[in-house]
């Protein structure tokens, strides 16, 4: 049913935070998503992709991320509302290696910020 619960871990007053999970580099996501249990799934409310996998211990995980499509939707929203900008959590989590696929993925992410 694609429902994943996080333990409530206090963090700056928020009941659900990154203290309950961890950040995964975009390069890892792009390599892992194709071999995941679910492949890429899309949440229409969040306008964001996610996927699900089990680790070697059989523990279920759900990974939410942005891709060029979700970033471009958010950037277009900002532009349509006349807002002054958009931010990304960590641009340094993109893959800046010299691999051709990585270069294309990183370029597409940066390009998505300018609707």
From TrEMBL:
Keywords: Glycosidase, Hydrolase. GO terms for molecular function: chitinase activity. Gene3D superfamilies: 3.10.50.10, Glycosidases (3.20.20.80). Residues 1-115 form the GH18 domain. GO terms for cellular component: extracellular space. It comes from the Eukaryota. GO terms for biological process: chitin catabolic process; oligosaccharide catabolic process. PANTHER family: DI-N-ACETYLCHITOBIASE. This is DIAC acetylchitobiase. It comes from Anthoscopus minutus (Southern penduline-tit).
